[in-house]
Specification:
The protein has one domain: P-loop containing nucleotide triphosphate hydrolases (Rossmann fold, 3-Layer(aba) Sandwich). It starts with a strand and ends with a helix. With 225 residues, it is α/β, with parallel strands linked by helices. Strands 2-7-1-8-9 form a five-stranded parallel sheet, covered by helices on one side. A four-stranded mixed sheet has the order 4-3-6-5. It is 47% helix and 16% strand. Strand 5 and strand 6 form a beta hairpin.
Length: 225
């Protein structure tokens, strides 16, 4: 049986990466699910080696991979190259399912090749929350944050005017948003999921999150959200 492809997108600061990192170990208790590692030519920050969602290469290496038709999709829309490796398609034929964190532009490219991809959009109730979360990260200059926010507003407006995604999650409460993401994934995989936001469910989610990303990142997630 062929695996499924899940795409999670959101404006910068909406919490998409934290939600995906939380959902994967919970889903994996019932079904194989792996995050696709995105290739990028951006320069890694001091905190980036801890991240498992990027494979860093320089621009010349990325361009070589483009010529070799290595990518399912790629873009240089954000000041650096970003691309999704095509190799995962072969694993999908073996029944493995994948989840990818990517922007709207990349999603539009992928659905031309994977027409049954499950598209999930993460949103927040107030645009100011995005600014506060980006500032709280302390990783970028004000000009970089302003650039991200301008791009975020464009993405939000595009999705409002021309909806692309099929599932929408409001990330105004992190645990509830993670619960909904897990439920969407399991339902699409044909497996039912009761709420994990009860007391026992929350304890289990925290245990899995703690074991998968470590205590420092758990504290960081709740500080941001």
């Amino acid at each position: 049986m062929r695996g499924r492809w899940f795409i999670v997108s959101a404006p910068s600061g909406a919490g998409k990466t934290s939600l995906v990192e939380t959902a994967i170990p919970i889903v994996c208790k019932r079904h194989w699910l792996e995050q696709v590692i995105t290739y990028t030519s951006k320069q890694p920050r001091s905190t980036d080696p801890e991240r498992r969602d990027f494979h860093f290469v320089d621009s010349s290496e990325f361009e070589r991979l483009i010529k070799e038709d290595f990518f399912l999709e790629w873009s240089d829309a954000h000041g650096a190259y970003y691309g999704t490796p095509k190799s995962v398609l072969g694993n999908m034929q073996k029944g493995e399912s994948f989840i990818l964190v990517i922007d709207r532009v990349g999603t539009q490219q992928i659905i031309k090749k994977i027409d049954d991809a499950v598209l999930i959009w993460i949103q927040v109730p107030d645009f100011q929350i995005l600014r506060e979360r980006l500032l709280a990260r302390g990783r970028e200059s004000m000009s970089q944050i302003d650039q991200r926010l301008r791009r975020a507003q464009i993405e939000i407006d595009l999705e409002d005017e021309n909806p692309l995604y099929t599932h929408y999650i409001m990330n105004d409460h992190f645990m509830s948003a993670a619960d909904k993401l897990v439920s969407i994934i399991l339902n699409e995989l044909g497996q039912k999921q009761g709420s994990i936001c009860g007391r026992r469910g929350m304890v289990e989610m925290l245990r899995l999150l703690w074991s998968s990303v470590g205590c420092k990142k758990v504290k960081k997630v709740f500080k941001k959200h």
